[in-house]
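Hi F.,

I've been meaning to write this up properly since the lab meeting, where we talked about keeping a consistent format for the predictions we share between groups. The idea is simple: the sequence comes first, exactly as it goes in, then the structure tokens exactly as they come out, then a line or two of notes. No screenshots and no reformatting. I'm using this chain as the first example so we have something concrete to point to.
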Amino acid sequence: MEARSIMSDHPSGAAPDPRIIVALDYATPAQALQLAAKLDPRECRLKVGKELFTVAGPALVRDLQDGRIHVVSQANAGVSAARNRGIAEASGTYLAFLDADDRWHPRKLAVQIERLRAQGVAAFCFTRFRMAHGDGQPGDDSLHPSSTLQPSLRVLARNNFVGCSTVVVDRSCVQKVGGFPDSEALRKGGQDYALWLRIATVAPLVFVPEVLVDYWVHPTSRVGSDAVKNFEGAVFALQSFRAWNEQQFEVWTGSTYRALVGRRGLSMMQALWRGRRLDRRMWAKAMRSWARALIES
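Output, unedited:
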């Protein structure tokens, strides 16, 4: 991320408005410190990811705490709890998310904050993203979502078109729906999607049809690498959303939970076919997961 380019848009001497939570979920302390050195503490606060803290420990926190950076610590209670703590500590208007295997383009924050300010109401903004492999080369069907997307809650319930690292959202929207939901199931996947669904009930979805984020696909990444895990994460999110307000679920989504799961299952099978995942064990796993989700409905 070219942080200096992003931060340089403010007039000299002007106090920046948004303060952004940046998650340091890097594999090594050196990578985390390199990014931290580029950030303006007037605009950013840092969250040290669980894996990074396990590797680097308190020494990293001491290195970060150089007078410019405010460090917040808490016991490990899962991703949602860590994010919600970061949101509680934030003092600005907007929240943005950046995973370690993603990269923001230099104009990303400036473009989205301008669009959000133009709304006149608290809103949720996201952009297109590009999926690239470890060698930096884009994969097949690498741009998401479609540039012609017309976002709505009903469309979102059928397909999660929001990449987490593309999001900039008014903090009040997140607070209004109670922050990132948490459960034993969601800790396996779907936490982001579960929050997007809730926010879509209280705020407009603002789409910037420009590629402003690169998502790096590697063997341990969830998105684009494991159709079954993606399906299960979507199911967990839909279950959480239905439990949040059962009376309004079908009104909001325009569909039954069972129909949405059925549609998701078909998408999973199509993804396996496109990816040439033709081994019996993978197909059996997919069928079991789909059947289990339908039975639970």
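Notes:
Strands lie at 20-24, 44-48, 94-96, 102-104, 124-132, 138-144, 168-170, 205-216.
The longest helix spans residues 227-244.

If this format works for you, I'll send the rest the same way.

G.
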